[in-house]
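Hey, quick one: can you model this chain's 3D structure?
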Amino acid sequence: MSETFENKMNEIFDLEPSPKIPSTVGDVLPVKKVQVDKEDEDKDYTTVRENLKEIVKRGNEAIDGIMMVASESQSPRAYEVVATLIKSVADANKDLIDLHKKMKDIKKTEVDASTTNITNNSLFVGSTSELQKLLKGKLKEIDDTSIADE
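Sure thing. Here's the predicted structure for all 150 residues.
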């Protein structure tokens, strides 16, 4: 809006001037980085989970109530409200399951980052003569290192 238009409108409607809002790309507000620790993640998860469960519980109670109203009034609008409410409760249930999946993925990522790779079973692909040469070489290395240690 131009300032003259805004000033005229303020005079007509007897309003106070509105504060200036950054309008150019250069007037970007600074972003504050927030570090989230594991305890906060667990608290947030618990809070969101409890809220979603409460939404589902209240939604089910509301469905029961509106179903009685719809059946007594036989109003198409009441049945439409029931259908919308059922969809909302179903979406809340999906959100709850998605929350569990996201937390599981987060915890799995944390576990994957902290574990090291351990090889339990090895497979040699080659001929028996190549395997014997490999084993002889490894045995020689072991013998050489044990002699050097003494």
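One thing worth noting: DSSP finds four helices and no strands in the chain.
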